[in-house]
Fold this protein.
Amino acid sequence: MTLRIERLKERIRLCGELRFGDLVQVQAEIERCESPVVFDLEELDLIDLEGVRFLNACEAKGMSILHCSPYIREWMLQERGRPNEHPEPL
């Protein structure tokens, strides 16, 4: 499965799998949105470490995350306490 991105004004819905290779495309969608950006992760099934770090950096910049699965949220919390190689959105 791949990543599907749906955008409606300031809301970005991510569906499927979020991987490092998708982050440039997600960043492009962020730049097209009106502020503040809201991520809807209700249909996000899988994520990799770089995706978790990216979402943490987005939250740190004031972006909201809705409907995040418990495993992704827990992983995000664990990663916040560790130094990041890619702390900023691309």
Summary: The longest strand covers residues 38-47. The mean pLDDT is 90. Helices lie at 23-32, 49-60, 70-80. The chain is about 35% helix and 30% strand.
